[in-house]
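thread: overnight batch results

M.L. [08:02]
morning all. the overnight job finished for the chain we discussed friday. pasting input first so we're all looking at the same thing
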Amino acid sequence: MFSQASHNSRLTPVEPAAGSTELLARISELIEDLSPDRVDLLKAFHRIQHEFGYVPREAVPLLAGKFRTTPAIIFGTIDFYSELRMAPAAETTVDWCSGPACLLKGSLNIRRALEATFECEMNRTSADGRFGLRLVQCDGTCHLAPLVRHHGRYIGPLTVSESIEWARRLTGDDRRAPPEDGARPAADEASPELAEPVEAE
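M.L. [08:03]
and the structure it wrote out:
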């Protein structure tokens, strides 16, 4: 049965990249000396992101051709690594911890609150480029769960209402969030958990 199966293992050529000539030329220069056997693919991403601050969409066909793969594989690889992005970085990025301790303490509701307040989905940037949310893994600061990170500092433990209040202050919209049933009162500006985030040792 298998001996009669046909398989086309040859790679279909990738369409030429669209975009400015200068941008495409610079990307080509950055990856010119790299090995085409995919060993250097991450190095290519790092070089491009270091140069432009992100991996421009125009780089995808060039990378697919260089590393003898498909644009889908390139997009999938970029999507897999949270450090890589395909749009300019937000002015302010908030890291949301997806670790087990945070999840067990209700961090999914905090995530939803932040996405609504910043008007962007996880691992995306708001339309105006001001705010971004990034999913990060547990780094051992579970005593502060559920938490977020901002400028490398840990903010937690948080309730949903506190996360909304903190995010609104960050955006300049300081309307007070309604308290949750059974939740402790939202902290004021002097709260060490919000105004002076706890830093892990």
